[in-house]
Design goal:
alpha+beta, Ribosomal Protein S5, domain 2, nine-stranded mixed β-sheet, four-stranded antiparallel β-sheet, globular, disordered N terminus
Length: 406
């Protein structure tokens, strides 16, 4: 399969080229573009084998790459500090801190399959806000997986790169995440969301009504890192609570036990309310309800004739309420951003993005209302929390691929 080719985008493409030439005094062989992603609906369902509906966005990470004649990896990240940040390690060694852990994790996932990419020089630049819930870390893992494929001369496989990136972040970095992020970043098509069944890894493109709907992102100003102590523990707790909830369901009905939470319906879950720990039950209720919401949104978006977007917005708002109340991963800043937006004319619905504990909110907005909604979000957030928040629009873009060196 041929690698998708993209024209250079934004200044991060030029930035990685200039930084690479300055740092290594030679030309990179190629540049990988890996976008961030927005999950339209289906949050905290991927690691339980559930349904998700993400799309790639027009904010991206760029990775300039050249092979070396030894087994050393030298990497420089332009955006991580005033003077940038660098890491060096040998292929096969684990870089345990910072962005180096994602690089070495992606290499380890390749080595695990018997493929040795050799040493490389790397420069990274990105306009995906770090810790925002837009999957900057998964974008890096996908970019390195694609770079390794290219260096090894392999036929490009977006699915293989997505799986390697997932292995890197989930296992070698240790976040325990599901496949949502790398699959979306590697496999999405422009103007489409991607319905992913995380139990069997099947996918289906779902068209987005891009002429009638705009996507606005507002940043809570609270960064979170899934592998970090606070948010990371909250994420791991919820993974464990879902697993414990499924174990309780299986123990209570061993002869008709579901294989995963994906097999349960909201109506079918009700009978287990008194048999599970109260917190575990609420976690499971979110997951089961969220899977049903994904299916309903897919049906709405795929319906003929075109659907009313108000119904999609209602599902988005219900998702946020469930994440806030049953899954308890929201924070006051995200709740307020959603409340502010949902009170404005032209907004269909809002919800937190990503794993929660910080990061961004997503707002589905009529195109003609975008400017007014952005202004109100910025002003009201400043009044309430005493600081500015970043508010910006995103478009549904193509997934990751190779860019020419220009």
């Amino acid at each position: 399969m041929a690698r998708p080719e993209f024209p250079p985008t934004r200044d991060t493409h030029a930035l990685v080229l200039d930084a690479f030439r300055t740092r290594f005094v030679r030309e990179p062989e190629f540049v990988v573009r890996a976008p961030g992603r927005v999950n339209l609906i289906g949050e905290h369902t991927d690691y339980t084998g559930g349904l998700v509906l993400p799309f790639a966005i027009d904010r991206a990470l760029h990775l300039a790459v050249a092979p070396r004649g030894d087994d050393r990896v030298y990497a420089f990240a332009c955006d991580l500090a005033a003077e940038g940040e660098e890491v060096e390690f040998a292929v096969g060694d684990a870089a345990t801190t910072g962005f180096g852990a994602y690089l070495s994790g992606a290499i380890a996932a390749s080595l695990e399959q018997g493929e040795h990419p050799g040493g490389m020089d790397l420069v990274i630049a990105s306009d995906i806000p770090v810790g925002s819930g837009l999957s900057s870390s998964a974008a890096l893992c996908v970019a390195v997986a694609i770079a390794i494929d290219r260096l090894l001369g392999a036929d490009f496989s977006a699915l293989r790169c997505a799986r390697r990136a997932h292995r890197a972040e989930s296992h070698f970095v240790g976040t325990g995440c599901g496949i949502l992020d790398p699959f979306a970043i590697a496999l999405c098509g422009a103007g489409h969301a991607l319905r992913i069944d995380c139990e069997d890894e099947s996918t289906r493109s779902v068209p987005l009504p891009v002429a009638e709907l705009s996507f606005v992102i507002s940043h809570s100003g609270v960064s979170r890192e899934l592998a970090g102590p606070a948010a990371g523990q909250g994420y791991r707790d919820r993974v464990a609570q879902c697993a414990r909830g499924l174990e309780g369901i299986v123990a209570s009905e061993p002869d008709a036990a579901p294989r995963s939470l994906r097999a349960l319906s909201p109506d079918g879950l009700v009978r287990f309310a008194g048999q599970l720990d109260e917190v575990d039950f609420r976690r499971v209720r979110h997951v089961v309800g969220e899977n049903a919401r994904v299916d309903r949104v897919c049906r709405l978006l795929e319906a003929e004739p075109p659907i009313g977007l108000a119904a999609v917005g209602a599902e988005i708002r219900a998702s946020h309420a469930s994440l806030r109340d049953d899954y308890e991963v929201s924070i006051p800043q995200l709740d307020m951003l959603c409340e502010i937006a949902d009170a404005q004319d032209g907004v269909y619905g809002s919800r937190l993005l990503g794993a929660g504990f910080g990061g961004c909110a997503l707002h589905l907005v009529k195109p003609e209302a975008v400017d007014a909604v952005c202004d109100v979000l910025g002003a009201r957030y400043r009044d309430r929390f005493g600081k500015d928040t970043e508010v910006f629009g995103v478009k549904a873009a193509a997934g990751a691929g190779i860019e020419a060196v220009e």
